Amino acid sequence: MSSAKSDCNVCPEWDCQNLNDFKNVWVVGEVDENGLSEPSLQMLTPANKIATKLNTKIVGLLVGHNVKKYAKEFIEYGADEVIVLDDERLSMYSPHIYARTIAELAKKYKPAVIFISATMKGRELGPYVANTLRAGITADCTDFDVDEKTKDVLLIRPPFGAVLLAYIKTPTRRPQIGTARPNVFKLPPRDPNRKGEIIEESIDYIPQPKARLVSRKTLAVNEVPIEKAELIVSGGKGLGNIEGFKLLEELASKMNAAVAGSRKAVDMGWIPHEKQVGQTGKSVKPILYLAIGISGAAQHMFGIREAEVVVAINNDPSAPIFSQADYGIVGDYKQIIPALIKEIESLKKQLKGD
Fold it and tell me: What is the reported pLDDT for 92?
């Protein structure tokens, strides 16, 4: 029989894991032109839940160039410690280089869990990190919990096309890595008086990317992204055709609202993917969400669970959305929407004193 030591010699050192050596919950901070991104700070909310149950610390991770200045903000939002690797060689984001850098730090500090916000950059970076560490990753989680017996983190997400939730854990590997879309979790409160430790790290070798950034140009955007909109008018398959969205756009313009749609509407080419709400789209948190011709599938309802008020308009009285909406109107949207537009115009005139 081979000894444990000889077994370890046939695989990389990182593969020979003693799970008891792994501790702390890491949250990877994403820094953009506006600073430390809100989606990455939102991940401190589930991190706090898991760290409390595991009786461990929340550690923020900042990797890049000119990122040290955001460490204090990370602590103010809930991190107990922040590991900072601020290096001019990381001035240009490259997923495999950033992942390699994060992996080197993970091998040194051995986090039990790594949380990454599923932004466009995070959805790219997460799998690179998981692959580099030979660890599993669960994407688009809607919640996290801890198995009380084994202390494994449960990464919870709805499977595609299903109404049940999958509870995923990795009992033999660390770290456990999970991502969640922006707005799935609320931004934790900020405490300017909160204290924490800032650990500055360095790394000897950082490979240079094969491509280099020549210039950067920000495209003008004339409307608020749906994930930041306070009012949303959203359409689904029940609109019948793309012409229905023209009516929705007219209503949205009267309300100063953003226009969005369900996955069915996107699949039919009636609205672009960046305006899709739901599990495979975006999570939104408006004050008012007006769902028109949307049946209310679980995947869509997941995307609007943070909406304060949901109003459903559908000609099918048995549509599932009515059981979850705050207000429901059964009828033909082609009659209801023009009536709403007329009422809004009338109220605006009254406010102007006309």
Answer: 85
The model's pTM: 0.74
Tens digit of each residue's pLDDT (9 = 90 or more) over 85-106: 999 988 888 898 999 999 999 9
List pLDDT tens digits, range 291-308: 999 999 888 998 898 899
Domain boundaries, the chain: 17-200, 226-352
Task: Pick the closest to residue 207 from 70, 104, 71 (CA basis).
Answer: 104
**Identical topology for domains 17-200 and 226-352:** yes
What 3 state SS string does the chain have? Answer: CCCHHHHHCCCCHHHCCCHHHCCCEEEECCEECCEECHHHHHCHHHHHHHHHHHCCCEEEEEEECCCHHHHHHHHHCCCCEEEEEECHHHCCCCHHHHHHHHHHHHHHHCCCEEEEECCHHHHHHHHHHHHHHCCCEECCCCEEEECCCCCCEEEEECCCCCCCCEEECCCCCCCEEEEECCCCCCCCCCCCCCCCEEEECCCCCCCCCCCCCCCCCCCCCCCCCHHHCCEEEEECHHHCCCHHHHHHHHHHHHHCCEEEECHHHHHCCCCCHHHEECCCCECCCCCEEEEECCCCCHHHHHHCCCCCEEEEEECCCCCHHHHCCCEEEECCHHHHHHHHHHHHHHHHHHHHCC
At 113, list the tokens: 């869990």
CATH topology of domain 226-352: Rossmann fold (3.40.50)
What digits encode the pLDDT tens for the residues 107-126?
Answer: 999 999 999 999 989 999 99
> 6 pLDDT band (50/70/90 cuts)?
very low
Average pLDDT of the segment spanning 244-256: 92
Domain at 17-200, CATH from 3.30.1490.20, 3.40.50.620, 1.20.1250.20, 1.10.510.10: 3.40.50.620
Q: What is the pLDDT of residues 224-249, one digit of tens each?
A: 789 889 999 999 999 999 999 999 99
Amino acid at 1: M
CB distance 102 to 81 below 8 Å: no
Is 311's pLDDT higher than 50? yes
